[in-house]
Amino acid sequence: MDFEKIWQNIVNCEGQEFRTIKGEPFTYLIKGNGIIPSRTNQLIPKSNIGKAAEIKNLTGPGMITNLVRGSSYVYAILADKRIR
Fold first, then answer.
1. Is 19 domain-assigned?
2. DSSP state of 54
3. CA 59 to chain CA mean position, Å
4. Number of domains in the chain
5. What is the pLDDT of residues 38-63, one digit of tens each?
6. The predicted structure's pLDDT at residue 1
7. For a 10 Å CB count at each end of the chain, is N or C smaller?
8. How big, in percent rounded to 5, are the helix, strand and coil portions of the chain?
9. Minimal CA–CA distance to 44: which of 64, 23, 62?
């Protein structure tokens, strides 16, 4: 799937509940070209999410820990059927 379509789905799901791989619920806000998960105040840039989205067969946040900020949130979003 084209990343811009993925990003549009992320924008459309702002405020909806997602769950980390450990089952922790969170929502997120879109701020500029990034997201801020409700369980932290860190901005995760759109570019980081794009890097993670390029990985084929992404099976968990551990695969992207050294690649992106907030890997557990990025993985939860990208793995959700509403996004991809």
1. yes
2. T
3. 14
4. 1
5. 999 999 999 999 999 999 999 999 99
6. 78
7. N
8. 35, 15, 50
9. 64
Does the residue 84 lie in any domain?
A: no
Provide the residue range defining the domain that includes 48: 3-79
| Residue 35 predicted with pLDDT over 90 | yes
**What is the percent of the chain where pLDDT is above 90?**
98
- Residue 8 maps to a domain: yes
DSSP helix/strand/coil, 11:
helix
Nearest to 71 by CA among 82, 55, 84, 81: 55
* Bridge partner list, 35: 30, 44
Flag whether 16 is in a domain: yes
Cα 31 to Cα 4: distance, rounded to the nearest angstrom: 16
At a CB cut-off of 8 Å and minimum separation 6, what does 63 contact? 55, 75
